[in-house]
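Let's sit down with a protein and look at its sequence and fold side by side. We need material for that, and I hope you will provide a protein of your own picking. Once you have written the record down, we can walk along the chain together.

***
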Amino acid sequence: MKKETAKAVQIMIIDNDKYIRESLSTFLKNERFKLLIFKSGEEGLNAFKYQDIDVVIADYFLPDMDGMTLLKQVAVDKPGTARILMATLTNDELRSEISKNKIDALIEKPLCIASIDTILDEIIKTGETQ
């Protein structure tokens, strides 16, 4: 009898920093995740329309728009998609905007892969129970 395998979680990563894209790709590349990686908001949003994405991780500072704007558009296009914002500099105003826009998580840079893994696990478990 064939063992059922869980569907891989589709994650879209949008960051203009090549090192961040390569690092996340290296650390998250496994049977649990299928990754789509882009360097600009426009590229990511264009692809998002045609893909079945479970989680979008976007950097705040993108070359063509800020990550918050991108994540707001993701919520408009596909409301059930989990959204994570990455930011180097955080302040009360940004945290307030994250809360107001119901962003699922904030990842502060420099990145800690263990915390990203924990955040993704929590989002995946929450999504499975809904």
Q: What stands out?
A: The longest strand covers residues 9-14. The mean pLDDT is 92. The radius of gyration is 14 Å. The helical segments are 18-28, 41-48, 67-77, 92-100, 113-129.
